[in-house]
Amino acid sequence: METIFPSMDRHEFFRIVGTSIGAILLTNCAAGCGDKAGGDPTPDPNQKVDFTLRLSDKGNENLTVKGGYVVSNNVIVAQTKAGQFIAVSANCTHEGTQLIYRANDNQFYCPLHLSRFDPTGKVLYGPATQPLTQYIVESDTAAGTIRVHT
Ligand code: FES
């Protein structure tokens, strides 16, 4: 019989290698699919949100650019390429990963499992099935502020 290693035949070798690869894949899936993403996957529609962002603050300068966004108070606030301000809950409804805003698509995007949401929070692409919470945004250009509220 042909052997790969002097003390192991081919069937034994592939059995061990196959088991090891299976264990590695299972470990990676458990890590990626587990509850390690943090956050609360289900937005609480009764949660009151009301805060104001000052555009002159260093942390909010992305909002002065079309296509820019910031995350504040678990809300992602973005300025679309058309210059409209939009806001939704910042955590993906699948496993809670913090979303990003993609201005070119005008969508909120989850970098973990690739769910996508439209500007109102509606699911466009899973695995997420629940919508994001959409918030009202009022900009006051004279004061240089943006108010986000329920
Ligand atoms: S955490 Fe899985 S799609 Fe967002």
TrEMBL record:
<dbReference type="InterPro" id="IPR014349">
    <property type="entry name" value="Rieske_Fe-S_prot"/>
</dbReference>
<dbReference type="InterPro" id="IPR005805">
    <property type="entry name" value="Rieske_Fe-S_prot_C"/>
</dbReference>
<keyword id="KW-0001">2Fe-2S</keyword>
<keyword id="KW-0408">Iron</keyword>
<dbReference type="Pfam" id="PF00355">
    <property type="entry name" value="Rieske"/>
</dbReference>
<dbReference type="GO" id="GO:0046872">
    <property type="term" value="F:metal ion binding"/>
</dbReference>
<dbReference type="GO" id="GO:0016020">
    <property type="term" value="C:membrane"/>
</dbReference>
<feature type="domain" description="Rieske">
    <location>
        <begin position="50"/>
        <end position="146"/>
    </location>
</feature>
<dbReference type="InterPro" id="IPR017941">
    <property type="entry name" value="Rieske_2Fe-2S"/>
</dbReference>
<keyword id="KW-1015">Disulfide bond</keyword>
<keyword id="KW-0411">Iron-sulfur</keyword>
<protein>
    <submittedName>
        <fullName>Cytochrome b6-f complex iron-sulfur subunit</fullName>
    </submittedName>
</protein>
<keyword id="KW-0479">Metal-binding</keyword>
<dbReference type="GO" id="GO:0051537">
    <property type="term" value="F:2 iron, 2 sulfur cluster binding"/>
</dbReference>
<dbReference type="InterPro" id="IPR036922">
    <property type="entry name" value="Rieske_2Fe-2S_sf"/>
</dbReference>
